[in-house]
Amino acid sequence: MFLRGLCSCFLFWATLIFLMTLYPIETGNFKLDGGAMFGVVPKTLWTKTNPADSKNMIDIAARSLLIEDGNRLILVDTGLGNKQSDKFFGYYYLWGDHSLDNSLKKAGFHRDDITDVFLTHLHFDHCGGSIQWNSDRTGYEPAFKNATFWTNKEHWEWATNPNAREKASFLKENLLPMQESGQLRFVDRNDGVFVEKSELGFGILFVDGHTEKQMLPHVNYRGKTLVFTADLIPTVGHIPLPYVMGYDTRPLLTLKEKARFLENVVALEYILFFEHDAHNELCTLKQTEKGVRLEETFTFDEYFSK
Questions:
Q1: Which of 50, 77, 269, 293 has the fewest Cβ atoms surrounding its Cβ within 10 A?
Q2: Dihedral-angle region of residue 269 (phi above 0 means left; psi in -120 to 50 means alpha; beta otherwise)
Q3: What is the DSSP letter of 252?
Q4: Around Cβ 138, how many Cβ atoms within 10 Å?
């Protein structure tokens, strides 16, 4: 009887574990200046992995991650959204047919199903889709009416009182409606660099080189740790240590954070999930004589169907 009960308990918890399902959510593609994306790295080097067009622009994705975990449906980042002006979007050369709503529909969901929106940071290309025009276009409202929006206190204060360098990336229309709606909450950081298990059920690494207290989710899934790399490593082309974006507010700090992160990825066999790589969803890394380098790329379905 005891063994039967023990087996039943084990099966119950095993079922709960495998209830988690992850979905890549393509919210749309755009372009950014290649020089800005690679900082001091010469164009002759970065174009090997990220070819540029005649205007020096490279392909960029806004890929979110949807986490179905029991009765929670968590969306990590929301892309650019569609409420900005044509002039604004003209700077970013939108391309492709992806959209947040179509990607959610393909996964079997609607934006009203989302219970939580986790924002790695509050630059417009990561949180713009969180807020939309209201019905008569006189103001703004949350695009996910049933969701809690998650950031952290330090980053919120940084974003709502922006420095001159980042001011153009922190748009008030993307931020203040979250607070005014009463749907905004702060992750409890406990003053640590890494939170092993947050309120949302996954680990969070805090990094400060790109912007203050950017958050990188670490999700345990099917025996692996999947890391949402956000802007610490935007694309496969940014894996080598010196390949740091010109957008980073503290590039030397990014170097230190990135070095430590890459070592952990190799040692612990993490899988990287790219938000901004338009042509690669996942990758593994390896240690080489030249440092940590790309081992293999995969689509999400390829890797998790093995």
A1: 269
A2: left
A3: H
A4: 7
pLDDT digits (tens, 9 = 90+) for 49-101: 999 999 999 999 999 999 999 999 999 999 999 999 999 999 999 999 999 99
The H or E element that residue 206 is part of is: strand 203-207
The continuous run of DSSP H or E covering 297 comes out as strand 291-298
Length of the chain: 306
In the DSSP assignment, the letter for residue 230 is T
pTM attached to this predicted model: 0.93
Residue type, 147: A
Q: Is the pLDDT of residue 209 over 90?
A: yes
Nearest-Å Rg of the Cα atoms of the chain is: 19
Decide if 76 contacts 89 (C-beta within 8 A). Answer: no
Residue 12 pLDDT class (50, 70, 90 cuts): very low
- 266, 248 contact by CB (below 8 A): no
Among 246, 212, 205, 197, residue whose Cα is nearest residue 228? 205
Q: Taking the CB of residue 304, how many other CB atoms lie within 10 A of it?
A: 16
Task: Name residues whose C-beta falls within 8 Å of residue 199's C-beta, 6 or more positions apart in sequence.
Answer: 150, 185, 187, 188
**Dihedral through CA 222, CA 293, CA 118, CA 85, nearest 10?**
-130
CA distance linking residue 45 with residue 280, whole number of Å: 19
Look-up of token digits 């203040």: 176
CA 201 to chain centre: 16
Burial annotation 16-55 (CB, 10 A radius, 16+ → b, else e): eeeebebbbbbbbbbbbebbebbbebeeeebeebbebeee
Calculate mean pLDDT across residues 99-119. 98
Q: What is the pLDDT of residues 240-254, one digit of tens each?
A: 999 999 999 999 999
Of the candidates 113, 117, 92, 91, the residue with the CA atom closest to the CA atom of residue 28 = 92
Rounded CA separation 88/103 (Å): 24
Neighbours of 84 (CB within 10 A): 17
